Amino acid sequence: MTIAEWIFPIFVGMGLSAACGFRVFVPLLIMSIAAQAGFLNLSPGFEWIGSWTATLAFAVATILEIGGYFIPWLDNLLDAIATPAAVLAGMLATASLLGDFSPLARWGLAIIAGGGVAGMVQASTVALRGLSLTTTGGLANPVFSFLEVLGAAGLSIFAILIPVTALILVVALILFVLSRVLRKKAEIK
After folding, report:
1. Cα dihedral sign for 45, 51, 55, 58?
2. Residue 11: in which H helix or E strand, if any?
3. Residue 73 is part of which domain span?
4. According to a count of CB atoms within 10 Å of the terminal CB, is the N or C end of the chain lower?
C-alpha cells in the first residue's frame, strides 16, 4: 500500500467528518450520491451507504434536519442531539473509507480523527450559535443555520474532490471560529 493509497481515504474521511460537524446528514447524503456516481469507493461492509434506500433516508433526514434548524427554539434543542450524532456520523464517514486498513487502525482512526474532527466542528458551531443567542437574542441563528448547511455541502464536495484543500479549510475554519468566540467572550466580560 502506497502513501497515497492510505492518506487519501484519511483526508477524505476527515473532511467528510468535519462536514458532519456542521450538519449530520448533509455529508452522508453527499457520500451516498458520490458513491452511486462512482466518485467514492466505500469499504466492504459499508456499501449500503451508496444504496438508493440510504440515499432516500439521508435525503429525508437532511430535509428534516435543515428545516429544524430554522425554527428558533428548536435549533438549540437540535444542537444537544446533534453533538453526539455528529461524532457518530464522523466516525461512520471515516470508517467507511478505510477498507484496506486493519479493523484496529480503521476504528482507531474513525474514533480519533473522524469523531474528533466532527466533534470539534460541532463544538465550534454550538459556541457560535450560543454567541449569536447572547448577542442577537437568536435573531441571527437562521443566518448561521444557512451558512452551516452551505459549509456542510461545500466541505463534503471538497472532501471528495480535493481532500487536501478540504483539510486545510477545516483547520482554518476551526481556528477562525475559536478565535472569534474567544474574542467575543473577552469583550462581553
Report:
1. negative
2. helix 3-22
3. 3-188
4. C
What total of structural domains would you count in the chain? Answer: 1
Question: Is the predicted pLDDT of residue 67 greater than 80, yes or no?
Answer: yes
Q: Which burial class, exposed, middle or buried, applies to 28 when counting CB atoms under 10 A from its CB (0-12, 13-18, 19+)?
A: buried
Q: Is the dihedral of CA 157, 167, 31, 70 positive or negative?
A: negative
More confident: 49 or 189: 49
Separation between Cα atoms, residue 132 and residue 119, nearest integer Å: 20
Q: What is the mean pLDDT of the chain?
A: 89
pLDDT at 1: 64
Q: Which long-range contacts (CB under 8 A, 24 or more apart) does 149-153 make?
A: 149/22, 149/23, 149/26, 149/66, 149/69, 151/19, 151/22, 152/19, 152/20, 152/22, 152/23, 152/26, 152/27, 153/19, 153/26, 153/30
Neighbour-count burial of 93, counting CB atoms closer than 10 A to its CB (0-12 exposed, 13-18 middle, 19+ buried): buried
Radius of gyration of the chain (CA): 16
**In terms of pTM, does the model score above 0.85?**
yes
